[in-house]
Amino acid sequence: MNIKELSRELEVSEQALRSWCKRNGVRKESESEAKGKKAGYLLTENDVESMKIYYSAKGKREKEIKKGNESKTLDILAEQLVEKDKQIASLLEQLKAKDAQLLQLNDKLTAAQALHAGTIQALQDKQESQAQNETSMAEEQPTAAQDQIKELSEQLQELKAENRKKEQAQEQLTARITELETAAATSATKSTIWSRLFHRSKK
User: Fold this and answer.
1) How far apart, in whole angstroms, are the C-alpha atoms of residue 168 and residue 93?
2) Structural domain of residue 132, as residue ranges?
3) pLDDT for 103 beyond 60
4) Phi/psi of residue 128, each to 5°?
5) pLDDT one-digit tens code per residue, 15-26
6) pLDDT for 178-195, tens place per residue?
7) According to the 3-state scheme, what is the secondary structure of 105-123?
8) Which residue from 29, 105, 167, 192 puts its CA 20 to 30 A from 122's CA?
9) How far is it, in rounded angstroms, from Cα 150 to Cα 127?
10) Would you say 134 and 122 are in contact if contact means Cβ atoms under 8 Å apart?
């Protein structure tokens, strides 16, 4: 069996087989034996058997290494997905708490507005019958109510802004999870493509 035939059988390039022969001291043809052609290696049965054993073991090692690398990649992706799930769960809890605060502030704001409207109406009813000093004292109440409404409105706007930031962060996390899931799903396909390209390059 010559190098070319063995290359087809083992699916290994002829150059790789020649390198093996050189490393292992396989005898080459003499000029007279080559008869003007490029001198090749004279393979014995022992040489052929040794090469088959070597490249068979090498192929198994490469497959095991590739399989191990793919397994590690999938483990890393799985850990990242678990971590992202935890982050999303935490964000959802924070959003629920913010929603509760918004509802509470809305209730307070509504009550303050109602109090303000009631106070103004009461003052209008009393203006004709009360003395100037009573009217002056009563006019301070709407000012306090207005200040309270302003403060509650500002708090409400701040909470809404925080809520929007949380929603944007959740959208970014969801997009990242989709990207990781896509990478995990296509990992096996990529492995198959690489394996086929590897065998074709040997041929």
Assistant:
1) 15
2) 88-202
3) yes
4) -80, -25
5) 999 899 999 988
6) 887 777 777 656 666 556
7) HHHHHHHHHHHHHHHHHHH
8) 105
9) 26
10) no
Dihedral sign, Cα of residue 5, residue 10, residue 12, residue 15: negative
The residue whose two tokens read 């290359």 is 7
Q: Determine contact, residues 88/173, Cβ cutoff 8 Å.
A: yes
Q: How far is CA 148 from the centre of its chain?
A: 46
Helix (H) or strand (E) holding 182: helix 132-202
Query: Is residue 159 one of the residues assigned to a domain?
Result: yes
Residue 129 lies in a domain: yes
Q: What is the pLDDT of residues 136-175, one digit of tens each?
A: 555 555 677 788 888 888 988 888 888 888 888 788 878 8
Residue with tokens 């004709």: 128
Looking at residue 172, its amino acid is Q
* Under 8 Å between Cβ of 177 and 84: yes
